[in-house]
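Co-fold these.
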Amino acid sequence: MKRIVLLLVAIVVAVFGLVGCGNNGADSGKAGKNMNVGLFWFGDSLDPAHEWDGWTVMRIGAGETLVTVTDKMEFKPQLADKWEVVNPTTWKFHIRDNVKFNNGKPVTAEAVKASLERSMQENTRAKKSAKIANIIAQGQDLIIETTEAYGGLLSTLTEPVYIIIDTTADLSKVAEAPVTTGPYMVTSFKKNDTITVKRNENYWDGKAVMDTITIKNIEDNSKRSMALQSGEMDIIQTVDAANAKLFQNNDKAKLYTGTGVRVFFLQMNMAQGPLQDANVRQAITHLINRDQLAPLFGPGATAGGAPFAPSVNYGYDTLDKPSYDVAKAEEFLKAAGYTKDANGMWSKDGKVLTLVFANWGKVTPVYEAIQNDLKKAGIQVEMKRVQNRDDASVQYGQGFDLLEDVYVSAATNDSLWFLNNVFRSGAKGNKAIYKNERVDQLIEELESEFDVKAREAKTIEIEQEILKDNPAVFIVYPANSTAAKTSVKNLVVYPIDYYLITKDLSL
Amino acid sequence: MRFKILSVMVLVFILIILLAPQLAPYDPLAVDMTAALEPMSATHYFGTDQLGRDVYSRVLYGGQTSLGLAFVIVVATTILGSVIGMLSALIGGKVDTFISRFIDIWLSLPELVVAIAFIGVLGPNIKTVLAALIIVKWAEYARIMRSLVVTVRSSLYIQYAYMSGANFINIMKDYVIPNVISPIIVVACQHIGEIILTVAGFSLIGIGVQPPMPEWGSILMSSKDYMQTAPWLLFCPGAAIFIAVILFNWWGDELRDVLDPHVN
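Predicted complex below.
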């Protein structure tokens, strides 16, 4: 009797166990074809208008904007199929006729207007950057009037904060499941953990290949790599220098890299301390060995020299960029009145040239290598750990000489945002306290310039001014890197890393 | 016998760390990108890190920081806590009650959280790590010392000493201190391992000793992503922490047995 009871218990346990296994199979036949993607960051919500959360919505293939940017850094129509500049303060966009939100409602100019207005109302960055005074919806035409002549509107509207959502849907759920127009629609959102999306059956540009995609937030670089190695993930975005080797010459996974649009640089304090002297700043630009630093930023990273990476059309090859040249640096230091003391350190008035290097990121070996480069040349560097770039300048009363900084310099395929935020006099991100009237004037002109070629020319001119004054030393352009199983097809690494999941991506 | 063997091992360990400048074949801070991530070899016993620095030299020098910090923190907390505890017991009355309640409150605070908050406010560097750990650890010693002094003071031989005409200073010097010092030393020795781990833990989460100064925890922190591609970067400082903690804890236990009159 006892044996029979035990046997029955064993059978029940086995049956429940098997049923459990069946339910867990996300890519079982019944559940459809699923892909697993590991990202390095999630926003706090999925509301495109909340802070930077739209970047996640874009990455997961749920969000779309009026215009998008290709992997060749060209503007491409998305929800708007054409546009024109009516006059310096008026743009006219035509919204595609056949687009529907994922709830089946048509995307009209009125719906786009409501979405853009919501973004500007909810997000101060959106309100400031677009300079929109008025939006008028006329059938499928959307007329945008700007507060001033603003040539950067097109690129600004590609930023994910302007992802078009259905504002007539239940907005209490917008943080977890925004109603968007992308090839995939959000089905669940667990903060900092998991997002699941499924194919948007109403998608205007053909059906997405995958039935569902499960996106995991795996912030730790090693864990993300291990998740791909173990087969738990099919794609992981951002592979660091430490783990890149795992996916090189690997039969099961492949590493994809592409020059990004981020720039890692050091702002140089022009308001106080030894870097007020232009000669000392010049010397610093020649003392950092960028070629040796680039591999520390991961696969595909390239040595820098100018504000914008070679991936964008801002004359990278034509600019006069500083090179690693210790002899040249020594000339500048001598011109600044420094002499080498008995210990081989540059000194002036009995004081060794000492720079405070404030850093807030995670690339510790890079800070150490920079410190080593400068020390080797005879400049003392004191490390100062701060919470973020604002800490260094506000909390510590501008108590730094060199400040680590990283920006997506051409996030929307345009130079204006970066230049305006970092190099314009009085800008919030201008921690160097840089002031050049010509640069300010050119940035102002750039704002009202509509011709793409003319915008490029003005940007190059600004870059030349910056490279002459050296408010910053531009070090490396980290690459966008993605690793995927060899079975993954149609994976494109965009220079702008918030583009990742597309309708064609498949397993 | 076991105590003697362990004492020799501890001494040898400390000696190796102290002789780091003589034993290390390379400058622990010297960057050589051309030699980055070389595995263990006769040229680099523990391999090199992502900046081409010799890990063997960094571990040796890192020991000076890790052990040095641990010793300074343990000595400072022992002296501070013991003085407060002893004064509380000797003065007695309201002062003793006040100090005792204060120690109760202090010990009820989560010490790691307080230390992290302290470092967070003042900024991470070697001085704030030192101060933070002294601030959170002293109360433990004060509590132990107070109870030891109270117990010894109420002993009959102290009362007989008073009756025999001994003054306060003599009683402290000849009877109280010799009876309370041994247990405190044992506790302090047992804490060395704990402090080494705490300092390494702080460095591991980025709020401890700041780069480029080598310290076992900070070496681990800057290498943690290389677990698969260059495991020697984690194994060597990890092993150094492991050996140091095991050695000091074991030695502390043996020391307790040697000094404890009940065992003898």
